[in-house]
Amino acid sequence: MNSLNVYLIIGAALFSLGLLGVLQRRNLIGMLIAVELMLNGASLNFMAFNRFLGPEPAVGQIITLFIMGLAAAETAIGLSIILALFRRLHSVNIERAQQLRG
Amino acid sequence: MNPLATESLAQMAFWIVVGLTFTGASIAVFPRNILYNVLGLALALAGVAGLYLYLGSFFIALMQLLIYVGAITIAIVFAIMLSRPLHLEVPKRELPKVAMAGGASFLFFLGALGVNFTTDWTPAAERGVDWSITTIGHMLITRYDFVFELISLVLLVAIIGAIVTAGFTRRLTS
User: A80 and B122: CB-CB below 8 Å?
Assistant: First the structure.
């Protein structure tokens, strides 16, 4: 459990599961959940490099904090767009969102 | 308790945490009921918080629980309640597309594994030992103050944008 490779494999597997979710789901909220999984895989990688290779232990933690802040902003915007789309289309199926016109 | 038993206990707990993370991630991706997906996401995020504990950062693990499990999951639950997708079932996706999605993400996983095992990872020459929250706070307001302010601005813009996007369309359509 105390080697870099284990954490990198876990991070890659989390990211791949998220990628599978984004590609396969058509429910917009389900896609958003999968994107959260991908972000978590990425920040797990940052923390692993920070723990095993990096020169300053504080830097990786700060980067992970930034990722969390950006994820919060992304979720807020994504959910409000989903709500707006739902009011217009009465569906959360992404394949019915085919118009750019507002 | 002798140190060997403690070590094997920690090892066992680590693999249990990994198992919980992947169980949660699978529940977050595969079931078609969106409420199960959110519960699985919460489980996976809590498991990642446990992994952060093993990586030596209590602070980040706490932030993960607070921001992800506490805030983002709840926001997604609110969106589900407001958009009522539970009884508006999305039609089933055709098998070729699912197979292609699985193949693409499996290829990506294999590529990441290849990079992982073929690279010769070497640690930095001088490695600090300062893991304290005080250092993180100092760095946030000295070296990374611009990024910190930028993240704050992004969050502010996101909040205002969310209010405008969700609020104006309601006024227009009703």
Answer: no
